[in-house]
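Note to self: keep these together.
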Amino acid sequence: MSKIQPLLMIFLLAFIGLSGCKNYNDKIIGTWERFDDESSGSVIKVEKVGENLEGKLQHVSGNLVELGFEAGDLKWKEIAADTKEQKRYIGKDLIKAVDQNNKVSQTEYVDMYIEFLSNDIVQILDPSGVQGGMSKPQKWRRIDL
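Structure:
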């Protein structure tokens, strides 16, 4: 019996330690609303799908509607923790262009950083670390936990 107790204790400590650890990537999981620009009110939900994290649009408003985005679009994909910066993620952001008839003429995924400004606010940056040609940074606030 005395040999079983130390093994049981090690198992319990390992279980508690592992269950208390939260994967860094979990921090971005949740529902986010865009604010402070012409696409304010758009909502994206970031989830783990298989081994990857991805964000699908739940609601589209403002400028994103004009650019041909729709609810259900995979807006962010291949999201992963940035190994160089603790408060940042890397991934791909869907961009669209429309023609003269307001029909989507081009779709492309471009590299992006998701940078935490606080626990509940992120901004989207291009790989150079600037706001990717946007007049204002793309800001998103968490609307659920």
